[in-house]
Structure formats: C-alpha cells, structure tokens
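Homework-ish question, so no full write-ups if that breaks the rules, but can someone show me the predicted structure for this set?
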Amino acid sequence: MMILSGGAPRGRILTAVLVTIVVLLALAPFLFPGSKPLNVAAKVCVYALLVASYDLLIGFTGIVSFAHTMFFGIGSYGVAIALYGMGAGWLAIFVGVLAALVVAAALALAIGLFSLRVQTIFFAMVTLAVASAFAVLASQLSWLTGGEDGRTFQIPAVLRPGYKLLEQPLFGVDVNGRILAYYLLFLTVVALFLVMLRIVQSPFGRVLQAIRENPFRAEALGFRIIGHRTLANVLAALFAALAGALNALWLRYAGPDTSLSFSIMLDILVMVVIGGMGTLYGAIVGAAVFVLAQNYLQTLMGVAFGALNAAGVPFIAGFFNPDRWLLWLGALFILSVYFFPAGIVGKLRAESQP
Amino acid sequence: MSVALETRDLTIRFGGHTAVDRVSCSFRPGELVAIVGPNGAGKTTYFNLISGQLRASSGAVLLDGVDITNTSAPERARRGVGRAFQLTNLFPNLTVAENVRLAVQAAAGVHYDMLRPWTERRDLIERADAVLKDVALTAKRGHAAAALPHGDQRKLEVALMMALDPRVYMFDEPTAGMSVDEAPVVLDLIARLKRDTEKIVLLVEHKMDVVRALADRIIVLVNGACVADGAPAEVIASPIVQEAYLGMAPKGAAA
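A: Not a homework solution, just the prediction itself:
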C-alpha cells in the first residue's frame, strides 16, 4: 500500500479489473503482437494519464475546464518543435518537455489567477475561449508548428522500430526500439499516475475535496480557495502537458488533430464520466473502455454485419453497418451514464460496500 | 486583562435596512458571552461581520487591537476567529472523520503539503480522533456527513470548531434541532471551553435556561442595536429586555 499512498482502489472487483488492465498493458507487446494493438495500448496509457489529470480538476476540485487539450497540445508541440529543430536526441526531448512544462504552468497560473475567482460556468467559458484562441494560434504560426500539417519528427535511434535490442526474438516477438518506446511510455505513465494518487491522498488533496464539497466552509476554516484552485489547475496542466509529450513521442508527430482538437476534449469528458469522477482510478477504466471501443467496435460490427447479411436479415444488419459505429458508441455512453451515474469505478465501489 | 476582541460602532446596511446598528462591544479572554434577541434582531448578521462572511458598512472589528474589518473570512479564521454555523454547513460527501481532520489540518496550518500521504500524519489523525470521541461520534467516523441524522450533523459542526481550536469560538445556536438527550453533550463541551482562560466564546442562543447556565455576560440585540450588556441576572431582569425580547411586559401575554 506504500506505493499507492494509502489510496487503494477499494472493492475486490474493482481491484481485479484494474490489475487486469494494468497487467494486460504491461504485457501488451508480447500478448498482442503487431503494430495496431501496440498503438491501441499506447493510446490507453496516454489517455489514462490525460484523463486522470483532468479528474484532478473536475473530480477532486470541482473545476470545469475546457482548456485541457490546450495543455495536452502544449506538451505535444513542445516535444515536436524541439525534436524538429534540434534533431533526434535526448537533449532535445528534455528541452522540449521542460519548455512545454514552463509554458503550461505559466498559462495555467494566468488563467487561474485571473478567472478562478468567478463562478464555475464563467470559468468554463473563459477556458473555452482561451483554448480556441490557442488552437487558432497554433495553426496560424505555421513556421513554428507546421500549421494544419503539424510536425513530423525523428526520435532517438534506440526508440525506432529499426533498432534491435535483442538478437533473438523473446517469446516469438522481436524486441525492437518500438517496444522499448512502449515500455518507456508505460512506465512513465505508471510513475506519473502514482504521483497523482499521492497528491490526492495528501493533506493538500483533502483541501481540494473540501473546496469541491463546500467552498464557503473551507474558507471559514481558513483555507485560501483561490490559491488551492490555482495550484490544482497548474498541476493538472503539467500532467496534461506530460501526457501530450508522451503522445507526440509515440506518434513521432504533433498536429492539430492529434493534440489540440476540441473532439479530444469531448473524448476526455466522456472517459472521465464513464470511468467515474473523483476516483482517479476511473481514468484507467474509462480510457481502456473508450479507446478499445473506438478501435475495435468498428471491427466487431463488421463481423456482425457480415454474419447478419449472410443470415439474410438485411434490415437488422443495417444497424450493424461498420460506418455507424459512432451511433453505437453514443448509445453505449448514454447507457453507461444511465446505469452507472457515478461511473464504472463508483458503481464497483458501491457494490463492494458491506 | 486586555481586550481581545472588540467591535466599534459596527454597522451594516442592506439597502435602506440597517441590520446591525452601531454595535460597540468588547470581549475579554476567558469570557463566555451570550448574544440574545428576537428573531431578525441581527444576531447572525453580527456574527457574520465578526467572522468575515459579511463586510461592515461602517465601524470596525478589532482583534488584539489590530483592525481586521477588511480582511477576508479565511484570513480571520487563520488569525483565530472560528465560526460554527446555524444551518449545518459541512463537507457532505466526505466522511465524519475526514470532516474533522480537515479542521485539524487547518488548525495545524497544513495547506499545501502534497507529497506526504494523509495516513502518515499520525499527529493530525490522533487529534481528530480525540475530538470525535469528545462529541461521541467515534462510532460514525466512516459515515458520509450527509448521511448523518440532523442531531449528529449539529454535533459534527461543533466538532469542526473544537478541532479548529480557535481563540474566538462563535457558536450560532449550536443545539438548534437537537433532541433532549443530544443537547447536553454539546453544552458540556461548550462549558468545558469556559475553563480555558485564553478563549473567548460567543454564543447565539434562544433557550434562556442554556444562557443562564453558561453565560458570564449577556448582550441583547433588538433591531440591530445593542440594548443591554451585562451580567445575566441583571440583564434578564431589566425591563427593557423583559419587554423587547421576552415580550412579557403585560402579564399573561403570549411569548
């Protein structure tokens, strides 16, 4: 429990689900060889981190922000611009990440100090405006960001697919730079997740929850709510920027669609709601369910479509046309909100209460 | 003994209505002062002006001679003005223990410590456990505050004050809505505070027997103004109080 900072998942089923997800992610390169499964696993890791950092805001502090993709984008572009400009090297990664963290912290601090004293809904609007402005800026400054095309860059040689770590295949899989990159990503996400878990279990984390529950009372006890909210905003921005940097390194690319678009913001919201707000573990479950659905629902529907067509029921088969996968994703979302209003993690915790 | 808390001509107006009207009172350490008056007399508003939930239109609040009239509520809390509320005001989805620990944490000045888990702060946890024992809520420590019955929520409200351990305790009808068996637990705790010669205890209370039993002094507010200030027996016997507050001037009239 040391490693979990006293914030164990609570509930046997929930623990089993989480352990399963983490073990599958840890062994993904060997259990599911091939480039698509590895990409999906990497995306689950990146989004688990990103959604957890958002949960720090919306779930623990009660702040609704729409600027979270902006910080994700800052991380992505920081790494992309540094590696594009300085060439593929570890120093460039370091410089890129550091610059991104500084920019993200400064922006989050500015947004926080200027607007966290206003009501929730106004703060949400401010973040929406700032994020939109930032997205436009990123696409206009094409000399720096590559505009709509984004930036494709090279990463250090040991992380490329061409690099062979072992001469012999391990468990029938060639251990190349890509797998090394995956483990770098996976372990970084695990470490950062544990840091966040520690933060929410700390005295500071309790004050955040107190502010979410009753800001008036928190003030009467002597807590400065603006200071705490601003700090939470900065922390969430830093973790989001790190998630963005990891994502860009994995994709070897940063562009508006992969790191800044508003649809990513919506995905984050869906994931945090499906997983369960204010639990942090919800981020892992939410990201796993959502990314798997996003990537395999279409395949699954293709199979059903083919089978139903072959069985001669074209009308019903129409529902399963792979092109309509988003409809089903939407239906799944509505059902999950209806049946698990506290998210999957909230539901599993409630089930295990005596 | 020096004056510790003082209000000078403290006034607040809401539009044309003067809710608190030039109230000048001083409170010495070791004193328990009851503030009484009919409904709408401005007792809670006077409290809000002292603890910072409202800002005065004119006049001043001084703590140890320092003007704190324009400081924020959290700033006043950090300086030692602790406030319990008339309407229960807790952290509803946190457990009873977590509620109390937050107040203990505030008292210890632990605001931004984010690298150590809660569970390692044994000192804070033990202090919170002691407070829970005092208010007889130990058995319900794991319940969410929102799930408690009303009487227990009131006790928790008092527990937050005990845990905060301020220099000025401000209780706004601490036993309102409590059952006959529950009220003594809270009143005993307040009575125990009297033994501490460093603390000032301010108490808004409707039940005259409680006031008589606890108060060293009584202040009577009517229409926002202070109409009497003195020893309990004197104040209760004075005609102005009999008429204005107790409404008993004509014999046999309804209270």
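Now go work out the reasoning yourself. Hint: The longest strand of chain A covers residues 151-152.
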